[in-house]
Every structure is written in C-alpha cells, then in structure tokens.
Amino acid sequence: MAGRFAAPGEWTEINSIVEGHFMERTVSGAFDKTLKERADKLRVLYHHGMDPFFGFTPLGPIRSLNNDTEYEVELVVDEFNKRLLPLLEAGQLGSSYRFDTIKEDVNLSPMRSDWNPDRIPEVTLTEVRVKEFGPTPIPAYAGATAGLRSATDVFLLASLHSD
After folding, report:
1. How far apart are CA 87 and CA 69, in angstroms?
2. Distance between CA 6 and CA 9 in Å, rounded?
3. What is the pLDDT of residues 41-78, one digit of tens each?
4. Backbone angles phi, psi at 104, to 5 degrees
5. Looking at residue 109, what DSSP letter applies?
6. What percent of the chain has pLDDT above 70?
7. Of the N and C termini of the chain, which has fewer Cβ atoms inside 10 Å?
C-alpha cells in the first residue's frame, strides 16, 4: 500500500463538535522532528483504529516514510487486509493521521480568500507529533491518499482474494 497521510499546504475545513469550526493546514516541515524521533514507533491503522472489524490491528510494517508524508506499507496477508485490498484497488480510501499539536499559528480574523470565503478562523500546524496514520474512508484532506503502489502489487496480493 502506498499513499500520503497528510497534504502539507492544503487547506481544509474542520467542523467538529469537539474540535470546533476552523480552516486547517499543515506546513511542510511540520512532521520532520516527530518522524526523525518516532518513525520506528508509528503504526499503520485503518480509520485510526476505530473500525469495529479492524480495531487497533496494524496493517503491516512501514517499508518507507518520508518527511513529505509519503509512505509505503507492506500489507500483512491476513483476514483484515483481505477486506481492505478491494477498497484500495477501487480508489475508495484516503489517508489520515492522529496527532498532538506541538506548535501552531492561529489567525482568528483572517482576510477573505479563495480557500476561506467565510473568514472562519485559520489554524496552521507548524509542528505535530504523529501518533499513527493509515487509510480511512473519511479523509480530512483531499490530497491525503491511499492505494496500491503498482499493478504488480495487485498480482502479488491476489492471494488475498483467492480464499
């Protein structure tokens, strides 16, 4: 599986009872420290571990991960990923990540813009601590993706469909 768990520079609207209503973006470099310190501790979970079938079962080991949030994960051949593979093949998933905010810039009175015509508050995440990431059916950012790395993966993982 390959994708990008965040989309640095891309604005998205967050409208949550818990978090509030604001525009959010993450700057390039916001992940540098946490990935340097914690990349080997991160787990790849489906929908933040909140899915009743997948739960907190890791999908597989991280093969590669860079500061631009691009990742490759070697999917474990198991019952969980057997259900995940058709969704990845069909392009039905994006990616997301769970994080703690370390540093942010908040603008409570932004100017009107193409990405924020209603002038709702804007939050720019400048440093975050990533807790986990992975595919999700409800990505916050359009540019956060999940899919299969190549057509070769489809043939190599075909055994997942054969049962």
Report:
1. 21
2. 9
3. 999 999 999 999 889 999 999 999 998 899 999 999 89
4. -150, 155
5. S
6. 91
7. C
Q: Smallest Cα–Cα separation from 75: which of 160, 161, 163?
A: 160
Helix (H, G, I), strand (E, B) or coil at 37: helix
Task: Check: pTM over 0.85? Answer yes or no.
Answer: yes
Beta bridge partners of 5: none
d(Cα 160, Cα 144) in Å, to the nearest integer? 25
How far is 108 from 39, CA to CA, in rounded Å? 33
3-state helix, strand, coil in the chain (%, to 5): 20, 35, 45
Tokens of 50: 């909140």
Percent of the chain exceeding pLDDT 90 equals 83
Q: Are 29 and 67 in contact (CB under 8 A)?
A: yes
Structure tokens at 35: 């990935």
- Could you list the beta-strand ranges (E) of 6-116: 12-16, 20-26, 43-44, 62-65, 70-73, 94-107
